[in-house]
Amino acid sequence: MTPTLVQRHLPHAAPLPRADLCARARDWAEIQERMLVPVYEAVYERLEVGPGTRLLGLGCGSGLALLMAASRGASVTGVESAEPERLALARQRLLPGAWEGRGRGGTRLTDGSEHDIAVAESGQAPFNLITAFQPIGCTAGDSEGLSALLESAAPMARRGTPVVLVGWGPPERCTTSSVLRVATKLADPLRSTGSWRPALRDDLEEVAHRAGLRPDGSGRVACPFGYADAESAVRGLLSTRLFDAAVGATDLAQVDKEVTEALQPYVRADGTVWMPNVFRYLIARTA
To answer: What is the predicted pLDDT for the residue at 266?
Structure first.
């Protein structure tokens, strides 16, 4: 039976209007997604991603990591069930018609449903790389459901296939943590389950073990968040949807104001915003 690959959904205080979701997806694709490019590059270099790679990207967002793998010659399949607006943008970037004859075939994008996966993978060889690049370790409970997702994906890969997970570094090495605390203050002042978690370690190994995977190495990567100005920084950070509960509990104007204020220590003389961060990736292997 073909598995479903439905992602976990982080809790949000209230659903955003469709127009807002589309705008946030565009901000993610145009501003924020590129901040994790150093992680993608480090992983692809370490695992020698190239023409022989069949990659399954879980939570592929608007497809930048897949695009980078495809540019190395990999055949890529992206799954995005939690953010259909981002998946629509990934289709614009990656579907064969978008390549204009450049010869980058083998790209598939799905919403993770059983039927969609079956159609996408009919007659295909097993995957030899699985990635889950959406970082965990930012809010308490944000790894919930990830182990089950990885466990569902593992049978679609060869034995010993590398599976890559990503986590935020400790708050003292992630400047952005001071800005993300705005979401906690506005949405959850008593620091309940959805609050910023000042952990000293991420949950990557624990998530891998629960999924039946064997940890096999890790690395740390500097991922500074850089923006043209404070307005772009606010739009980029809000596109992560980590502030949705704060918007629901107050309003967008209040969140914009407080995030802008929290960004002030990181605004440079030329008006650009620069926030150094460290992320960690874990490589685990399927049984």
So the answer is: 98
